[in-house]
Amino acid sequence: NTSHAFNDYNHCDATCMLPEMAYNQNTGELRKSGIALGNLLGPGVEAASDPALGPGGSWSTCTNGCHLDPPQDVAHVQFKARIAWKLVWIP
Q1: Three-state secondary structure call for residue 90
Q2: Do the beta carbons of residue 83 and residue 75 sit within 8 Å?
Q3: Which pTM was predicted?
Q4: N or C: which end of the chain has fewer CB within 10 A?
Q5: DSSP 13-64
């Protein structure tokens, strides 16, 4: 379920999200960033979260579009969230 997280060039943003935002889907507003239409992450966020730690959860999201101003990546557009931290690959 999370094997892609921080395992490629793109899934490098750790995004915290509120429970009411976790089931948001890409309805086309992320088309320029190459994000899949739909992009339903809520079930994975819920399965990987520990409710004992409080509401919400986190997921690794795509960095596509993060270089734009304002940011047009999954965290900001689909989940109305900020990036908690970013993995940066250094060769």
Answers
A1: coil
A2: yes
A3: 0.81
A4: C
A5: EEEEE-TTTTT--B-STTGGGTPPSB---HHHHHHH--GGG-S-EEEEE--T
